[in-house]
């Protein structure tokens, strides 16, 4: 629960800064990545934020589910990979800021440095 709260707190300034553009986007936390990636992929799709081959977050675009119902766009943060890459709460917060900034930038088709001038490449 503390992780989910940290994700919400980290996302809030981004959501507020781009309120109109992000008003139709949901935010979710999943324990682990649940996606089919080919084992031979050396570069992941742009909508996936990763540490090497390990996805840390993903943008799911709005679409239609298997029942024909419309779905909203969603940012998904993967808890376990993030926790494994951060030893302290400060590191976790910094990593989440990086992930969420990259997800927002991808969704808005912006350079992450346009969203956060201090974005580390």
From TrEMBL:
Superkingdom to which the source organism belongs: Bacteria
Protein name per UniProt: Metallopeptidase family protein
Organism the protein comes from: Corynebacterium glaucum
């Amino acid at each position: 629960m503390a992780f989910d709260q940290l994700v919400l707190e980290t996302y809030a300034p981004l959501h507020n800064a781009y309120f109109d553009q992000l008003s139709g986007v949901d935010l979710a936390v999943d324990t682990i990545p649940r996606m089919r990636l080919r084992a031979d992929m050396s570069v992941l799709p742009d909508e996936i934020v990763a540490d090497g081959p390990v996805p840390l977050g993903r943008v799911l675009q709005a679409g239609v589910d298997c029942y024909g119902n419309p779905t909203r766009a969603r940012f998904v943060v993967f808890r376990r990979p993030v926790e494994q890459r951060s030893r302290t709460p400060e590191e976790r917060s910094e990593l989440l800021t990086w992930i969420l900034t990259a997800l927002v930038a991808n969704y808005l088709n912006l350079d992450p440095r346009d969203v956060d001038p201090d974005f580390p490449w």
